[in-house]
């Protein structure tokens, strides 16, 4: 036997709205999950984990006990441009191919042959 449906407002209760935070932490202005190590790539026009997709560039000289903070470089598909991710900077630099796998822009130069 079916129970009758009661549509009266006497039995309806207001349910509280529960806000849930996004699992994984805050997102930046591009929607990248910063807690997951994502950062925006101008070159790829998407969120990336640079430590997984970029080429690591470690300092040439380090002092004993000093923390090594790496820079990274990321190439577009045809390697005509490279995006430079430097530590402690808010924006990345796009380097254009200059000659023989060299990339440059202003004060920065990257030699793909030497990885420097």
Automatic annotation (TrEMBL):
Residues 1-11, 94-104 have a biased composition (Polar residues). Residues 1-31, 94-116 are annotated as: Disordered. Residues 106-116 have a biased composition (Basic and acidic residues). This is Uncharacterized protein. It comes from Leadbetterella byssophila (strain DSM 17132 / JCM 16389 / KACC 11308 / NBRC 106382 / 4M15).
């Amino acid at each position: 036997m079916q129970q009758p449906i009661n549509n009266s407002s006497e039995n309806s209760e207001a349910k509280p709205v529960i806000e849930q935070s996004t699992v994984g932490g805050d997102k930046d202005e591009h929607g990248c999950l910063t807690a997951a190590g994502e950062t925006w790539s101008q070159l790829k026009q998407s969120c990336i984990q640079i430590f997984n997709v970029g080429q690591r560039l470690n300092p040439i000289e380090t002092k004993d006990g000093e923390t090594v903070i790496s820079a990274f470089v990321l190439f577009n598909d045809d390697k005509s441009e490279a995006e430079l991710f430097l530590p402690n900077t808010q924006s990345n630099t796009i380097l254009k191919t200059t000659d023989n796998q060299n990339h440059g822009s202003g004060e920065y130069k990257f030699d793909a042959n030497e990885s420097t």
